[in-house]
Amino acid sequence: MFSVEDVVFGGGKPVVIAGPCAIENREQYFAVAQEVQRRGIRILRGGAFKPRTSPHAFQGLGEEGLELIKEVKQATGLLVVTEAMDTETVDAVAAVCDIIQIGPRNMANYSLLKKVGKTGKPVLLKRGFMATISEFVHAAEYFVKEGDDRVILCERGIRTFETQTRSTLDISAVPLLKKLTSHPVIVDPSHSTGRGDLVIPMTCAALAAGADGVIVEVHPNPRKALCDGLQSLDFPAFGRLMDEVDRLLPYLSRNGHP
Amino acid sequence: MFSVEDVVFGGGKPVVIAGPCAIENREQYFAVAQEVQRRGIRILRGGAFKPRTSPHAFQGLGEEGLELIKEVKQATGLLVVTEAMDTETVDAVAAVCDIIQIGPRNMANYSLLKKVGKTGKPVLLKRGFMATISEFVHAAEYFVKEGDDRVILCERGIRTFETQTRSTLDISAVPLLKKLTSHPVIVDPSHSTGRGDLVIPMTCAALAAGADGVIVEVHPNPRKALCDGLQSLDFPAFGRLMDEVDRLLPYLSRNGHP
Amino acid sequence: MFSVEDVVFGGGKPVVIAGPCAIENREQYFAVAQEVQRRGIRILRGGAFKPRTSPHAFQGLGEEGLELIKEVKQATGLLVVTEAMDTETVDAVAAVCDIIQIGPRNMANYSLLKKVGKTGKPVLLKRGFMATISEFVHAAEYFVKEGDDRVILCERGIRTFETQTRSTLDISAVPLLKKLTSHPVIVDPSHSTGRGDLVIPMTCAALAAGADGVIVEVHPNPRKALCDGLQSLDFPAFGRLMDEVDRLLPYLSRNGHP
Amino acid sequence: MFSVEDVVFGGGKPVVIAGPCAIENREQYFAVAQEVQRRGIRILRGGAFKPRTSPHAFQGLGEEGLELIKEVKQATGLLVVTEAMDTETVDAVAAVCDIIQIGPRNMANYSLLKKVGKTGKPVLLKRGFMATISEFVHAAEYFVKEGDDRVILCERGIRTFETQTRSTLDISAVPLLKKLTSHPVIVDPSHSTGRGDLVIPMTCAALAAGADGVIVEVHPNPRKALCDGLQSLDFPAFGRLMDEVDRLLPYLSRNGHP
């Protein structure tokens, strides 16, 4: 259990992190920031650097995205989590954000994990989509070994033969990781399923299994998103998600999981 | 939505099916039957025919197990689900039970599915541990094509590279199957995880995701079970599971899943 | 090592089994039989009963297919391998063929394996596409336990996340199975890859790894095949396959594998 | 097809790259170098920087290993391939070696691929053990986009449910990659299987399927290796591998693969 400013991870009340997959422009980023803040969200997601399978796909706004993060923080007071993709840009990312995200492709990029461990910022570490739970726990140790134990572990789906979802969200990883480590554990129902229509039920499943939070994608117009639109929630769907989490809160505060 | 006697599947209230993996002897089966009935359970599980990877492992009591099913039903009034492994014994199984189970190894045993479809008993069809959701839905059609649409689909984990659990419980299959079919969908947290310590959180996850029920293993003394003991709940743990389901009920009755 | 009539399995010289996936009609089946015989093939494949994912797909000619097998054997003297799908039809299948095939969906259908073990015919047992090597070896024991040890193990690909091939042909299973058992081991490059253009290189790979043979699909007109056409070889491609196997023979006769 | 000094990749004659997994000390590295040179090998492998799952495992000799590479090249005239793990050490690695290896954990480390693309050295790119063939081909494009197309693609096994091998060597990737790209394709039978006893048959399988070469691990005393000893060949086994490749050469020079 630890806090990032006023937000407590692992304290019993689930943390919902929300925002766009990629920061596309000022208008889009501010629109999402205001909407999620209106629903009580404290931590905004949004990538400036996007690792993409093809070198020809949109790679994020880069430095310009980091500038927009600074502006949105000043304008709203929101905390921000954003991804660091390589050791070269870690310091620039650390300078503007509150939590540094390591994506699934980089879970085993140990040089990057060590460098992030030296920034003084907590890390949100995503499980590689083909990483065992044991490898995931070991990867977190590369960060912790630098002296900071503020790691948020994020289950985001593993690659299987099933093709109706982008990957298979391994919810059993939640109770397992809580047994094996003392780190808070959250779940990403957006990237794991790759389908906006599964985000609400999988959020409820994750929280009922004991997850300390979720990280979800929200976009003003998912069909026009430059990146991963199919899995993003539009504003009305995001509202329904928050209503559903509210309905589940009484249970979560009393659950008797071992 | 349909009923098996007084039990409604798909009606909003989750159905908990409980019992031993295999019927080992009269004492064990009656002990579990009485314990689960005491907690309000209406459907007892328990296998007389057990398909085992090795021909040298315990294969179930066979005909003797079917006799015990008859006796336990008379003594308690419980309904019983038990597995049919082959076309030869389908009729004998159908004669004593209320729901016929088809196990994951037989999900694509189409001859068996057709024969079960002719018995007049509803089927509890388990997803093969390497079957896609599409193949699972098609398999159910082999049963339905015989004229009976009382199929309960059961997600029981798929095989992945992760080794800390026996298989990976694919909870996203629950909302997906409910979109693709009108059959009730339940989850087996015992066989899927292979770990008794994960049964409670995974039951809650499944129900929160919209499952219509769960099927769990209960044994008076899991360490001495002839089959799959590690994943069985003893009586106190089963009590905690039922308490947890009770705590979740108020949420389940009001959930706003699409 | 054992013989089926004049064909030796496991004797150093690779056995090529060839024929259509399904027997579609007399003309197609005789055309393939004559073509493969012309190239020196002794064992013809071809299914009368076809287990298909959807109950609405072509399921094979059934009894009519068994009649055609009888006729083709009389006319050509070829030996025939064909699939038994269920315990009901095992005896009818055994009455016409020389080797009974158990398909991957039925590898763990232990009742079927036991029944086949009583027919007095050798079995060609395909690895389930979700089965570990250990489970595969255990499945063979269900057959052997009936008193006949003439099992041909057939690696036919396992299900993975890769989608460019139908499954992933696990060639390392060949040397592993030869270490773990004394059964001959063959490979199915047609069903495993699902692509006719990969059949030749994967046949060579399998034989170079020590396989005792291959089973391949040949069809007079793959584009019009009722079942699995994309993976079938037409006659010219089958000719190139046989030429390639001939080129590899000098190596195979001298290989020094442990 | 391209050359690295006097070694031609993709020219029909297979290239065998051999050496230890990790450079452990001068004695071990020189012993292997001399042994592989004695058998006609031109390219020596050996890691100075080793990415390991646990931060507490041996991580390689680092700079000291790079010094030993310089010495071994001067003493023997061998060419060397060694891994670059992060952007910080790419230039130091490029300064001493002839081919830069990118390991499977870093296949999708696009920043690293771009940096390596600027060094003027060819790259040996290993397929991630969770990467589709399509992602593998895209990753190579990150390197090529920098202006150098000297990429050697290396299939090294994908992660599956099978546990008797470390991963499943996907030999069908060889003909597929040759259809999809013009890069040479080699195979790593040591890391993929994790078993020295499978290296010879899998090498033969890979070459018979059309691979342009293999990269294998050789160690004077595999049982005492600091890293991955079980999969290394000792000198006599390496001799048998080379004899086997020699036996296969006449076939390889005449193969008629499409």
What does this structure look like?
By secondary structure, chain A is an alpha/beta fold. The first copy, chain A, has a single domain, classed as Alpha-Beta Barrel (TIM Barrel), CATH 3.20.20. In chain A, 38% of the residues lie in helices and 16% in strands. Chain A is built from 9 helices and 10 strands. Chain A has helices spanning 26-38, 63-76, 90-96, 110-117, 133-144, 173-180, 189-193, 199-208, 235-254; strands at 2-4, 7-9, 15-19, 43-45, 79-83, 99-102, 123-126, 151-155, 185-187, 213-217. In chain A, the strands form 2 sheets. Chain A has an 8-stranded parallel beta barrel with strand order 3-4-5-6-7-8-9-10, surrounded by 6 helices. Chain A has a two-stranded antiparallel sheet with strand order 1-2. In chain A, strand 6 (99-102), helix 4 (110-117) and strand 7 (123-126) form a beta-alpha-beta unit. The longest helix of chain A is centred in the C-terminal third of the chain and has 20 residues, at 235-254. Chain A is globular, with a radius of gyration of 17 Å. Chain A starts with a strand and ends with a helix. The mean pLDDT of chain A is 94. The interface between A and B is large, with 46 and 46 residues.
